[in-house]
Design brief:
mainly beta; five-stranded antiparallel sheet; rod-shaped
Length: 196
């Protein structure tokens, strides 16, 4: 059998053996036989994801990472891969000139093995919320039933936080000078008066 990179199941074929020369060919003896064989298919429909574990982190400073995608076999119809980010307040996806919570890449019978790239960038949110785990789901759509709705594992990304929790105090008065002889600085507020 010869691999054909196509999910086509087992393909039957026949081989005809016959004697073209020799003593049986001239004696009028029928010396031929047909054998039915089957070429078992080894191809599968799957989405190949090229992204190492150490590239699954972005940050709120705007760093980004990406993944390469290709198909494992020639599709019988075009295939659309939709990557959807679970929290666009933490991570955005980019592909084919579009950036957002969902982007698409496309494959056909000529580009099925070409790497298509999707970039992921961290989003700054001004919250001291620590590292945030974000899921990227991958959905396949196609008229090819082997690829349409194919189950694909999600990609998980971590968006590292760049914010620090702090209290910014601003005195609404001139503090003045405090000397060693003063025990403390007394501040009184008119907050009770303001609530009336």
């Amino acid at each position: 059998g010869i691999p054909d990179n196509t999910v086509d199941g087992s393909v039957p074929y026949s081989v005809l053996f016959s004697v073209e020369s020799g003593e049986y060919a001239h004696a009028g003896v029928a010396a031929s036989a047909e054998h039915l064989l089957s070429n078992s298919d080894v191809d599968v429909a799957s989405l190949l994801v090229d992204m190492s574990d150490d590239l699954r982190t972005v940050s709120e400073t705007g760093t980004f990472t990406g993944a390469g995608f290709s198909l494992s076999s020639i599709p019988h119809a075009s295939v659309t891969v939709v990557a959807r980010v679970s929290d666009s307040g933490e991570v955005l996806a980019s592909a084919n000139g579009r950036t957002g919570d969902a982007v698409s890449i496309f494959f056909d019978d000529e580009s099925w093995s070409d790497d298509k790239y999707i970039a992921f960038q961290g989003v700054d949110d001004d919250l001291a919320d620590g590292p945030q785990l974000v899921e990227v789901t991958l959905t396949l759509q196609s008229a090819d039933e082997d690829y349409d709705g194919l189950s694909v594992s999600s990609i998980w990304l971590t968006n590292n936080d760049d914010d620090v929790a702090a209290v910014d105090l601003e005195a609404p008065f001139d503090i003045g000078i405090v000397s060693e002889s003063q025990a403390c600085l007394l501040y009184t507020s008119d907050a009770a008066d303001e609530e009336d």
